[in-house]
Amino acid sequence: MVKNVDYESRRRAVLSAAINKHIHNAEPVASEDIAENFDLSPATIRNIFSELEEEGYLTHPYTSGGKIPTEKGYRYYVDFLVSQIGILDEEKNNIKREYKGQMRGLEDALEETSGIISQATRYAGIVSFLEWQDKLFYKGLSRILEQKEFNDPEKVRLLVRALEEKEHLLEIINRDFIIDKVKVYIGHELEYLEMENCSLVVSGYHKKNKPQGRIAVLGPVRMEYSHAIPVLAYISDVLSDFLENIE
Known about the structure:
Arc Repressor Mutant, subunit A; Beta-Lactamase; 2 domains; two-stranded antiparallel sheet; stress response; DNA binding; transcription regulation; transcription
């Protein structure tokens, strides 16, 4: 039993290392790329890769023998493996400083928040407000288009169209609104063809303990979840505190 537990822990560690590697370089991961992180041979890593591929957590492009994560792999990573590194004090201070600037009223605060999210995560930031059902704020589209996944003009066209169709985007962001926690939608979980190459990290914000709206990070499925999730949670808290002082 102990051996089985140890082997399963090793498999999880290999999967996590492969996903982290792919997130940071956008390239298929070879066994040699991560063998140096473990006291294992590349051949042993390849065997584990093969098992993970058979189980649907990894796949391989036709043009490469290396592996890339599937959406199932990313889901397992987000739910069980991701190590949320938290936020450095400097980053917290930078975020707080933005809310001590020249924001004038609710609308200005929400619009600025979309930019703060984008700046902090290096993806797109989106903000909705419950009482304005036909309006949302987003900034940072160019940051998504810089990602390798969007070198394809057709993918760019679909994403731009998705952001223009605000009603559908609002429906996604406000989905499961009563859930008071960060929620992650990966690829096809968004149930929106135009955004199947994207992931969306969503959190709520409040005023006087009442839900006011949603904030979100939109990026590629190959998102740096370990950073985006805690950053969004922190901005949610700071925005909620800020709104307490707005009439």
